[in-house]
Amino acid sequence: MSSLLKGSVVAHLIRLTLPSIGGMLAIMVFNLTDTWFVSKLGTDELAAMGFTFSVVMIVGALAMGFSSGAASIISRALGAQNRRLAARTVSDGLFLTILGTLVISIAGYFTMNPLFTLLGAEGHVLELVHEYMVVWYIGAVAAIMPPVSDGCLRAAGDMVRPLIVMCSVALLNIILDPILIFGWGPFPAMGMKGAALATIIARIIAMTASLSFLHFNHKLIDWSQPHIHNVLASWKEIIRLGIPAAITQSLNPVAQGFYIRLAAGIGGVQAVAAMATGTRIEAFLLLIAMAYGIAIVPFVGFNYGADKHHRVQETRRISNRFALIYAGITLVVLLPTARPLSALFSHDSEVVRLSTAYLLISVLGMVGGLVSMWMSQLLNVIGKPRPVMAINLLRIFAFIIPLCLLGSQLFGFYGLVAGLALGNLLSGILAGFITRRQLR
Description:
- The structure is a single chain.
- The chain is 87% helix and 0% strand.
- By secondary structure, the protein is an all-alpha fold.
- Helix 3 runs antiparallel to helix 5 (123-138) and helix 11 packs across helix 13 (366-381).
- The longest helix has 58 residues, at 228-285.
- The radius of gyration is 22 Å and the shape is globular.
- The model has no long low-confidence stretch (mean pLDDT 91).
């Protein structure tokens, strides 16, 4: 990682981003595989899978928080040549993840029926949810550990091994899903249980591989027994830095649920379908942006830890310019392709029309959304979680929700999407201003 302290900032960020693009794509394939195979079982099974997503995403947000908090400390410690602190943080972060996941999975196991009934599952669908989640909760540690251990690898500047792990696991999941769900060869058909079991087996492989890389390749797992006081202090710092990331991960589905609900009131099921279609296409368009956000963490953390603050400032300026370029290129791409892309997901002309409108209007606010995301990553990795919390809470509750509500009341579906775009733009301006002040 010492090479990150010299040479072109742009070149380093590109080098760190490229492997992460493949990793993000592998994660998308992994998530879509289960849904696609389960959809072949029937509508009830697909609905049950939809109910499980909300709980899995919340637990995943906790894991992302632990990963983000640990990565911040690890990258800065390595920049300051303090490998002992880095190794201690990796070990404490992994143990905290195991402990936290065990507590949540035990609580979730014994509250399955009331929780999913509250979410709206009932009858046969509730039984299917129970089938899936029993297996998932039993293997929850394996399901949650890979993002944390991969985050530790990336914090050490290793972007290639997480890519290898995720691509291998995505391929394994594609192989296991039909075998265990439909019962190919000597294996019995297990339906929803098979889908959950395929996920857990694939994640166990990912967990084993990434932990092996941390131990054998990077020597970043400290097996010594620390004093309980030191462990608690380490956990406190990981949680302090991880909470903003966890809240951000949790807030995005909340905001999305809010404006989809607004869309349902305005245009019914066609508007909801259009929003679902638009957000799916948008997720692919943001693939490189998400990968760039991952690359910011090791580069900024290492340079900040080594007191190369001018390179952190340069990263901020580069990121702001890149956000503008990225949004501009995306708009140029969408102008001729928004309608054909929307038509791939629906044959309903009204859904295609509204989805096209969503893509072309929302992209006008993309630059602000990217700045908010990347500046939050930058601030968190240098150990400033409070401004990150402020940026993301204000983005959702002061900008996006009020503007979407106002826009929908004044101009219907188009106003709703315009409110979303304007909310993202305003949050980007705020994030840029806050980050510039924090880095002075």
